[in-house]
Amino acid sequence: MKTIEEIKEIIVAWGKSLPFSVRLHLFGSLVNGNFDPSKSDVDVCLEFLEATYHYRNEQRLVRSLWIELHRGWEIDLTRKLGMKAHLTLHRSDNKYIQAALRKGSLVVYTAEEKADE
Question: Which pTM does this prediction carry?
Fold first, then answer.
């Protein structure tokens, strides 16, 4: 079974491989101290950063990207971790996610903003 540090390293490497500028938050049992590798999943909240929003209708873009890509990303991250990953989109209008992040979260990766070329 992987240690929490190994889990963080895998998530950071996965975040760096994404084609978008994102911030990744860990939350849930892994952060709150009651993580059981044999039963718990790894809760990851993905936040698209400003560099992704070079489009006119940014909220619609984010939701479209999420709908198209999140299941594949979740499957990929689950495979890399060797345990179930639960990937959630960071949205200011999602009260459940906002409460969970306030209760306890850890930002493990923030992509460097890419300058316009």
Answer: 0.85
